[in-house]
Amino acid sequence: MKRKHIISLVVAVAFIAIAAFALVDNKIDYSDFQKASQSGRRAQVSGTYDKDKGSQYDVKSNTFSFFMKDRQGYEMPVKYVGVKPNNFELAPSVVCVGKVEGGVFEASDIQTKCPSRYEGSGKMNTEGQAANGQS
Amino acid sequence: MLGSIALALTFTASLAGMVLYALAARGRVELTQAARRCTQLALLGMFVACATLLYYIFNYHFEINYVYEHASRKLSKFLLFSTFYASQEGSFMLWGLWTAIIAVFLLDYARRQRYEAHVMAIYLSVLVFISLMLIAKSPFETIYAAHPGEAAKGFIPADGKGLNPSLENLWIVIHPPMLFLGFSLLAVPFAFALAGLIKRDYQGWVVTSMPWTLGAAMVLGFGIILGGFWAYETLGWGGYWAWDPVENASLLPWLVTVAAAHTMLTQKRTGGLIRTNIALTLLAYALVLYGSFLTRSGVLGEASVHSFADPGYLAFTMLVCALGVFILVPFSIFLWRWKEMSGFTQDYKILSRETGLSIASALLGASALVVFIGTSAPLVQKKVETDFYNNLHIPLIIVLLVVNALSLLLKWRQSSWNDLVKKSLSAFIATIVFTAAIVLLGVHDVRFALISASAFFALYVNVELGWKILRGHWGVSFDRSSPTSQDYLRRLGTALGITLILGVLSLLIGTAGDYNLFEPAIGQFWPYFAILFAVLLVVFVLAGYPKFVFDTKFLGAYVAHIGLAVFVLGVVASAGYTKKEIVRLPIRKPVPAFGGKYTLTFQGIDPVDTVNEHTYWLIKIADKNGYAGTARPLSFFTDFNQRQSPILNPGIVKYASRDLYFTLMASEEEGGIPKDTLGKLQEITALDGKLRLRFINFDFPQSERTKMMSQQPFHVTATAVAYTANFPNGDTLVLGMTQNPVTGESAKDDDTIPGTKFHVQLFQLMPDMQNPANSKVVLRVFDVDHLPSPPTEVITIEAFIKPYINLVWAGIITLVIGFGFSVIRRRREALVAIERAEQAYEKLLASTHGKMSPDASRAESQKSKVLITKKKQIKRA
């Protein structure tokens, strides 16, 4: 019985150690552009899409690029290999995962938050209101 | 109004039922009947509440905030039905409904297992929590109550916001209900474990709970894979699992439950692992609640695409409290009883099936731990890459599969190495041959080769052992007993049920849940299902119910493990060896793809639904044998994003050994008149050098900007200088364009350069607000006498070949069927166990007649105590 316990303990400790290594290796910090530029590590930055500067999709290289302003108000060009995500223009916030390379945030993943879904107390769609008026 | 009353009824009845049952558990047996009534009332309340919400949805009662937020007049009927559980409040309704329905079935089962009062008191506490949440965050809130100040009392919007476009797929009709049925079912083993703990019945509860544990694992597993299949068929990134926190939240309790099922099996044999089983079962339900907390409290925020936003302070607090209560109370009792919970244990050697089962559970637990850490990382402002999960699961799955195969070859209690080597020899040889074959075929990645080898090893052993049971012992006979009219009715129901389930599932798979295709498919295929129904009916009525001679009883584990191995092989093949290519397809021009293996032709579009602008993009596929199918990626517009950009669904063509998967990326015009982008003071030379054009500046006056801001058509101009043979010193042109910001359409003024037939158009303005000097324009220049050939439409697609992806689905379905077999077996065992215990009790009663207390309730509780002891003794014998 004793030996059985020792073996399982060793295996468990070894696994937890490996898991801890993997965690450190694969973790992504919630960050902003400035911190991400300094560290050079992969980070998750959330912010808003700068509509004034527009967005572009280049078919040949399959890259989608736009400017994003992070929560601190710092703006940076973002490049993403892939097409423009659904709901991009209307998303109140955009979340990008990637790292800064040469002044450009190279995103490997872009998520857009839907404007109203999953938000119980979101603003009402005023268009819907205007359509009918008082009844 | 009615809805809120019904919810209040559910809350009151389940609370009363819980209290009455708790009193009954403490000896007031006469209260049991009232408690049963309360349970039924709680179900009635849930039924009425759900029916009311559905009534509001189907009658477009947009004054109800929930209906306004999720339903819309444009939605098809099926999708309208699913708005019922599209969000926070509604999914609690679904959860509550299932919990209440299960309560009524559980009541009957628990009564027969002598567990009613304890189990129901605990189980109803779950319903108390859910109904309380529903009252706090009611789906029946009116729009004026939800948006005070924005909407006047009595206001009814003309239309609702509609469903999230990524949910506009028919799989939503069955995936969430299945998932929530799984969550609700997990409350049953939780209740049995806690009741067993309270009753000090540390052994009996395992037998009693086993069919529910397996049933919950079966349903939850099926629900999870339905979600994966749905993601694969609609989201377009080509995968079915992204380790998203919401997906993980459903996977966690499943992993722990499957781990518990394995150690419960050990306990049934040896009587050991008492603490492990109670802890795992309690933990599985705690993880259901933890998952709900993560996904519903808003804490995940940005970590997940489909997490709910902050539900408000009250709901958040309630979620935290529920989590606290359902974890702290059971585990406190657990720790309280810690010392007591060591009973008689049958010892087993290291080389035994018991050890194998324990290792399997430990591996599943390790997997759950990995998923738990990754999923919880957002709580501390972190996130993990999917590689974290993938890399850690590679060693886990390899060991798991090898241990699975070996432990099935081991005997219970003890085995010898010689015996193991002898039995596993053929499997070893077969695995070596298989591995050599796949390495020769191109599997050069060591990880993939090892996973495939271990999966094949497990597959071989399970098929071998399963076949041994099946061989020579299978066939079909028919139940020849003369049926009553009730039997006929039941047979009619079975035939109808089988037809409907097969019909709906096959149509959903065939149409990828696309509702444009679903209704026509019903029209096209209903005769086949009618024939199936008729055949089933004729067989059932004339010959009786078929009785399968093979004993599904012992096959469950093998079938489930075969499913797991097949699933793993499918995952390796499809995830490791998917080929991807970006292909540009000019209309009606065959383009070779994947090194000439396929030829793809974009044939044009098929606008199926003009209201929602659903459009199929037809891509004809040809292989070396000719025509091989047509893929139909879909694009559609939705009010949900104010029709700004299309929503894209992939087009998939399935073959037995692979899927071809196409995602639309862009559609544009190629050729025609060239466009040139120019910065300020930049020049181009066009029309074979006959024209030089310099862009000076553009004019976008404030008055026009105001129009643009208020979504009205606006006019802009650009100044350019054209140098031609007639005007070598340049001729200044003012080019104009009117743009409609709502439709995106623009009307270009056409400017002819004097003395030539050259035309210049301002095509697009690209202003840079921060640095006006960087602004650019797009111009088009053409010669009327020498117009280039007309433009052609070109689409860009991402094309995937996904080898053996069907093994993924087939594997999981097989796994689920295996669980189903085991449920049947363990349910029978539980019923037999209690029956034997009852008989033993009757004997005991006869021998000690008169000695018992005359008080009926005392006798009853005495009886259940004796029964439990009996059950234990019988099991051990």
The biggest chain-chain interface is: A-B, 53 and 66 residues
Radius of gyration of chain B, Cα only, in angstroms?
33 Å
User: CATH homologous superfamily of the domain at 28-116 in chain A, by name?
Assistant: Nucleic acid-binding proteins
Number of strands of chain A: 7
Compute the number of helices of chain A. Answer: 3
**Distance linking N and C termini of chain B:** 59 Å
Q: Sketch the major β-sheet of chain B.
A: 6 strands, antiparallel
The CATH architecture name of the domain at 28-116 in chain A reads Beta Barrel
Top-tier CATH class of the domain at 28-116 in chain A = Mainly Beta
**Largest sheet report of chain A:** 5 strands, mixed, barrel
- The domain count of chain B comes to 5
Q: Which stretches of chain B are low in confidence, meaning pLDDT under 50 for 5 or more residues running?
A: 851-857
Total number of beta strands of chain B:
22
Spatial order of strands in the largest sheet of chain A: 2-4-5-7-6
Rg value of chain A: 22 Å
Mean model confidence by pLDDT of chain A? 75
- CA(first)-CA(last) distance of chain A: 78 Å
